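Quick one, T. Sequence first:
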Amino acid sequence: MSEALTAKPPFASPPADDLARMTWERERNGPPVDFPALPSIPGGRYVDPAFLELEEKGMWQRSWLYTGHVDQLPEPGSWFLCRNTGSPVIVTRTLAGDIRAYYNTCQHRGAPLVKEESGTSRGFVCGYHGWSYTLEGKLTAVRDRRDFAEGFDFSCHSLSQVRCELLGSLIFLNADPDAEPLLQHIGPMAAELEQLQLETLRLVDSRTYETECNVKVLLDAFLEVYHLKSIHENTVDRFLDHRAMIVTLWPNGHSRMATPNRREGWIDPGTKGMPEIPTISEFVAKNNVSYSIYPNFIMPPAPTGIPLLQFWPMGPKRTRVVSTWLAPEHDAANPHPLWEMRIKNWERILYEDLQFAPQIQESVEGPGFKGMSLNYQERRIYNWHEELDRRIGVENVPENLRVKPVLAPFIVRE
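Structure tokens:
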């Protein structure tokens, strides 16, 4: 074995301070001495139909999932339809100003309540038989009331509600009625996100892309920077120092990755002069920090705007990517002139990540793919899979498809 692979790092383990950790990461000549060799992740987790069904029921249907921004509900009665979570869900602002979510399902015979993607109304009326509901989901009228039994109880036929909570101005849904509250669920990350003033940020842009691959194929790429020199050679690799990247693993699969700029004090020239979030920390402002809310939400904030990425499974080998931008002091009627080019540059980087996804899918479906052999830089991917098994229930995962839990000592709980 070569000396480069057997050499010990200059310190037994990285220091606690973020900037000092970056220096340590840049200068180390091996993984931390206490960090385990990551076992191979079985390839069947990307293609096995039975495992993917376990993933859908045990994880996707029980997770907090970003679905939209409050600017999409500008007034009482506004609503939009969310289709990414599997079953179509109506997200609406009630007359009292509260945000609620309901399955787009009439409680009579299951017909959809709305057919368009968005709108404004004082309630919902099923187009099939005319059952009527308030914005609070209560059944108020049925056609030909005389034909129903005398004891027919309207209160037992309210719309089926979906858990809906806010992270600042961001709307999250969870199909699990017993889910832990969102802010409690993201744990230590919640305190860090306060600096971003998410409640004040406005919706700038949102676009959707689809590609032929399992959702985890794309998610993996946004949990590491090991690929920068190959995929992003002419874009982000020009200014990011991937060798100094640091990782923080939090409970419930959430995490943070921070990558410094190659040149101290570097500022993206495509953002100069744009309004900034006044409370953002110097560390986040001067480094590329990326937050991950498990399972599919990626957010790398900058002082002048925050892109949000979600990765949605549209089937065993098709993925939808939703890319959204938020910013301080944004005026939709008179946007800052730099936004058009900024979004184009972001889209170019995104396409660099999307370009190989169908070919990777072909490979993982073939006999040549046995599993993933991850390194220390890619530990967020391994942590993602450990959390997946916990949510499914390790006992429910076929033994040949399980991942061995090894990262518990590296989870930061406070």
